[in-house]
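User: Here's a structure from my thesis project, written as structure tokens. My advisor, Dr. K., wants to see whether a designed sequence matches the one we expressed. Can you design one independently, without my sequence as a hint?
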């Protein structure tokens, strides 16, 4: 098995998640929402968008194919990690996003936001322990 490892010159992990997809019914509205949360706009049109997160991961927003449905009220298969959860919570309140109360967990603390199409977006505390990622 051929694996990529970290080196002293670059201590980051040797692999990352490249793309995560979320189906939404209104791509431009979802772009606005996620840009407000702090993602970088790369590209969008009426039915497709690419937004960038820290580390270079891209969130791909797409309209569902005919017959597919958006998972209203569901939590997406990812969470958004921030360095300062309290500051992110306060910023979400200032933006009128109505964050839930911060929940204390065993490893992470987190809160939820109602996202596009009723998704429950989980925002969680970082656990990188000041390691480069």
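Assistant: Designed independently from the structure alone:
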């Amino acid at each position: 098995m051929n694996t990529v490892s970290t080196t002293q010159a670059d201590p980051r992990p040797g692999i990352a998640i490249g793309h995560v997809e979320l189906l939404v019914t209104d791509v431009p509205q979802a772009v606005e929402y996620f840009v407000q949360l702090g993602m970088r706009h790369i590209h969008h049109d009426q039915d497709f968008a690419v937004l960038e997160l820290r580390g270079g991961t891209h969130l791909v927003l797409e309209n569902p194919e005919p017959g597919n449905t958006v998972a209203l009220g569901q939590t997406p298969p990812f969470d958004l990690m921030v360095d300062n959860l309290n500051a992110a919570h306060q910023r979400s309140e200032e933006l009128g996003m109505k964050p839930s109360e911060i929940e204390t967990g065993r490893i992470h603390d987190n809160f939820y936001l109602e996202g596009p199409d009723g998704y429950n977006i989980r925002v969680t505390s970082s656990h990188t322990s000041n390691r480069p990622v």
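When you compare it with your expressed construct, this may help: The two ends are 24 Å apart (CA to CA).
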